[in-house]
Amino acid sequence: MSIDIRGISKRFGSFAALESVDLRIEPGELVALLGPSGSGKTTLLRIIAGLETADSGSVLFDGEDALRLHPRDRQVGFVFQHYALFRHMTIFDNVAFGLQVRPRARRPSKAEIAERVRELLSLVQLDGLADRYPSQLSGGQRQRVALARALATDPKVLLLDEPFGALDAKVRKELRRWLRRFHDRMGITSLFVTHDQEEALELADRVVVMNRGGIEQAGSPETVYREPETPFVYEFLGDVNRIPCTIDGGQARLAGLGTPLGGVSGQSGPAVVYVRPHEVELLPADPVSATGRIRRLYEVGPLVRAEVDHAGTLLEVAIPSDGREIGLRAGDPVRVNFRKGFVFMDGRAGAEPMALAPFRTAAGGNAIHRL
Amino acid sequence: MADAAASPTGWGRTGGGGFRKPSVLPGFGITLGFTLAYLSLIVLIPLAALILGAAGLGWDGFWAAVLKPRVLASLQVSFGAALAAALINAVFGLAVAWVLVRYDFPGRRVVNAAVDLPFALPTAVAGIALTELYAPNGWIGGLLEPLGIQVAFTPLGIVVALTFVGLPFVVRTVEPVLQELEAEQEEAAAMLGAGRLATVFRVVLPAILPALLTGFALAFARGVGEYGSVIFIAGNLPMVSEIMPLLIVIQLEQYDYAGATAVATLMLAVSFALLLLINLLQHWMRARHDA
């Protein structure tokens, strides 16, 4: 089922939770709503489910107005962040709930319900736990019960609100791989909310980055990561260094950097260069030609992370090391080279849109970490 | 905890031999000692004295004192009315708690404060006020009289009085549990296609049933022991609307101390048995889903 969201707005008192949001979700897609808390992502999800009402706008399921329908008639499965399992019911009764509350005419027989529950529990790999109570299960198991319960009524759309938010890191990783495989098998149109960029990039067909009640960018994980349209998207999708600069005649002049960065399109004026830590190169230099100094070096798994003093700004640098010596030490003077990044113009008068220009410098000849 | 017991300092090992598990919480000895001493002085010793007094009658004397028709009738009135009032409170107290928790309406604070009035008001005052209202010439009694319903000076009046004094127990025990019940549970039920009724009866009520039972037990216990409000409205007709506490007082006034003690002991036994039963029921319910 496709979902068409058109001009949805929602206010809570004086706070605008959503401002005229438009989004189309294709049948069978797995879409992530990614954003910080307060960005409106959960509100949007709850409006689609019918747990919240929109002030204006419409939501169409396969072209049909869904907002007129009561939540229970929308054929939507909803998975809550804290599972919301019924504590006084066994796992079996939890999963069977959606079938058991149907009006008598549409309710399957007892045997059919039992068979369906058995099928679903085996689908979420929880065979044999039907007689337990939710309090006897682990967090990951409870979340899978919640999923099985949501699927019992054969929903056309699956909505998941921070489905992994309450789980610890390892279980979270396992469960999201599992959910991806699960989605590939079931092909049900799914929408999940998360504030974890890694989760969104790994799991989703399409990532919708939200901020302050609006959509900043929607696209494939590769697109939003490689071609961010706004500084917010760039910053939200990973660690980033911000270096103030001035744009002048297609070149960006950075404080403390002798040669300007070329290939910058756009107007002249103050701007900010955004560079990811792994796009920064450190070259050994004598104190005269050096542009920075290493303050601290530490190894994190396959990476060496460095903090570099660079003309008054502190740069984060990530250097792949594979455990080898990288030939740098804390206190060393270095020349800093930015291989790739984005230049965003400072928004003048606040509301003016920011100009964006990607830049890419030629690969530095003798970057030490490539040794 | 196990780590603490194995710690080289050894402080955690002090309780190793007994039933007490090593714990970082201090003050076990002093608090338990205080609790036992306090409970003994205030509750256990007086009750033991009561039973001892009744024992002075011997079995034959005890049964003779207890099996009088008037005593059995008062037993029925006391426990029957308390049970009826507790049941009424379970239903309407739940409704009051629901309204107070779920909805914000003008005057909510006033209603909220009014619920506690039966706690504070001298019960005799409540009894007089209720009698005034429900007497055949009172405001409400006057309306009921043409229908052939008489409340004041009948067992029905006792139920009304006990409902009044028991209301806050149900409201105040159910309220916090209802407040804690996440809205998500009901939302989940709605998303699964459950209607309003199914949600209330299958999701909300089972979740608050243990608290409701506690409130019911408290209101019931309070009703059994209530004296002040009942004697004004009950009419106190022997065999019809005479409650056990009143019977005990009457026997005391007639210097029948042994008889009063025997009746009191019977009351104690029945109350204890019923409360124990309710407690066991609660325990069984909790064990089912909090395993």
Quick structural summary:
Chain A has helices spanning 41-49, 91-100, 110-123, 139-151, 169-186, 197-203, 221-226, 231-236, and strands spanning 3-12, 15-25, 30-34, 56-61, 64-65, 76-79, 157-161, 189-194, 206-211, 214-219, 241-248, 251-254, 269-275, 280-284, 292-300, 303-310, 313-320, 333-338, 340-345, 356-360.
Overview of the molecule:
The complex is a heterodimer of chains A (371) and B (291). With 371 residues, chain A is of the alpha+beta class. Chain A has eight helices and 20 strands. In chain A, the strands form four sheets. Chain A has a six-stranded mixed β-sheet with strand order 6-7-8-3-9-10, with helices on both faces. In chain A, strand 16 and strand 17 form a beta hairpin. In chain A, helix 2 packs across helix 3 (110-123). Chain B is mainly α. Chain B folds into two domains: 1-55, no CATH class; 61-290, MetI-like (MetI-like fold, Orthogonal Bundle). Helix content of chain B is 75%, strand content 0%. Chain B contains 14 helices and no strands. In chain B, helix 7 crosses helix 9 (155-180). The two termini of chain B are 21 Å apart. Residues 1-17 of chain B have low confidence and may be disordered.
Largest sheet of chain A, in brief, is: 6 strands, mixed
The total of helices of chain A stands at 8
Kindly provide the name of the CATH class of the largest domain in chain B: Mainly Alpha
Please count the beta strands of chain B (DSSP E, at least 2 residues each). Answer: 0
The H/E string of chain B reads HHHHHHHHHHHHHH
Q: Total number of helical segments of chain B?
A: 14
Task: Calculate the terminal CA-CA distance of chain A, rounded to whole Å.
Answer: 52 Å
pLDDT averaged over residues of chain B: 87
Chain-averaged pLDDT of chain A = 85
Task: Name the helicity range of chain B.
Answer: over 70%
* Radius of gyration of chain B, whole Å: 24 Å
Structural class determined from secondary elements of chain A: alpha+beta
What is the CATH topology of the largest domain in chain B?
MetI-like fold
Low-confidence stretches of chain B: 1-17
What is the N-to-C order of secondary-structure elements of chain A (H for helix, E for strand)?
EEEHEEEHHHEHEHEEHHEEEEEEEEEE
Biggest sheet overview of chain B: none
Rg from Cα of chain A = 25 Å
Structural class estimated from helices and strands of chain B: mainly alpha
Number of discrete domains of chain B: 2
